[in-house]
Amino acid sequence: MFTPRFALSFSSLLGLTLAFAGCRDAPQKGDAPGSSSAQVARASIDAELRAALAGPARTDEERARDVYRHPVETLEFFGLRDDMNVVELWAPLGYYTAVLAPVLRDHGKLAATLFDPNNPPKQRFGWDAKYTERLDKNPDVYSKVERVIMKPGAFSFGPDASADLVLTFRNVHNWLSEGYSDGVFPAAFRVLKSGGVFGVVDHRGAPGMTPAQIEDTGYVPEDTIIALATKAGFRLVARSEINANPKDTKDYPKGVWTLPPMYSMKDVDRAKYAAIGESDRMTLKFIKP
């Protein structure tokens, strides 16, 4: 289980930040990547993220998943700053919202997309109600999170060229299965400013998988996502193995949902799947030229 670090000296924070620097390629606010001001900015966001991980808005179940999801390293790889306008697509139960909201609350902005509850059942997700309930119950953390109501077929995530960073975690396989991908990627492109970043994490499948295989297993080939993003106008600028898991053999009876945290096989071979851990994931960083 991930154990938050509550007391870090500045020199320790700077050392941690520099250790992650090889995974990041975006300078902060125009500074040269190796400049002292850029190093200070990186140390600062590292400290803010670790404080958010230790915050009261998170659940014990979320803390247990940090060892697989690497939220600090992932958000730093995507270039998060506390003054950004960030859009989180398909937030599910709010794992990343609980990290982003405290960091962005004072100087930035966080918007999260939700389906209109009046949409037909196939055009909304059951977890939206749980997500909004979570936001409502903790206004000290979430009161400034903007809720963007989506209507499939006419996706819009905010005013054009308004966002610095758009993020999505383990959602593209759903978009492909539900026929949303051709609408979501262009909408993400539109909402971003020039130079803005689209960060994507998803279950990594083998090259050449068919649409049926993607739907059945929940895994997506990297080249499929890269092709969708490129078609929308994005340029791939970096990829990371932060969320890789070489133990994941991707050949389970109920696809990726066999693994934790879903355990779709319930108690059947549970110890085996627990030892594997969560899925092997790609982490892709795109930019809007």
What's the overall average pLDDT, rounded?
Answer: 88
Low-pLDDT residue intervals, each spanning 5 or more residues:
1-29
Helix fraction, binned, reads 25-40%
Major beta sheet, specifics? 8 strands, mixed
**Overall tally of structural domains:** 1
Cα distance spanning the termini = 39 Å
> What sequence of helices (H) and strands (E) makes up the elements?
HHHHEHEHHEEHHEHEHEHE
Radius of gyration: 18 Å
Which CATH class?
Alpha Beta
Helical region count?
Answer: 12
Molecular shape: globular
CATH architecture classification name? 3-Layer(aba) Sandwich
Layout of secondary structure:
Elements (H helix, E strand, L loop, with lengths): L9 H11 L15 H18 L6 H10 L1 H7 L7 E5 L7 H8 L4 E7 L11 H11 L1 H4 L3 E5 L12 E7 L2 H7 L2 H11 E14 L5 H7 L2 E2 H11 L2 E6 L29 H7 L4 E7 L2
Parallel strand pairs: 1-2, 1-4, 2-3, 4-5, 5-6
Antiparallel strand pairs: 5-8, 7-8
Task: Please characterize this protein's 3D structure.
With 289 residues, the chain is an alpha/beta fold. It has one domain: Vaccinia Virus protein VP39 (Rossmann fold, 3-Layer(aba) Sandwich), CATH 3.40.50. Helix content is 39%, strand content 18%. The protein has helices spanning 10-20, 36-53, 60-69, 71-77, 97-104, 127-137, 139-142, 172-178, 181-191, 211-217, 222-232, 270-276; strands at 85-89, 109-115, 146-150, 163-169, 192-205, 220-221, 235-240, 281-287. Strands 1, 2, 3, 4, 5, 6, 7 and 8 form an 8-stranded mixed beta sheet that branches. Helix 1 crosses helix 2. The protein is globular. 40% of the residues are buried.
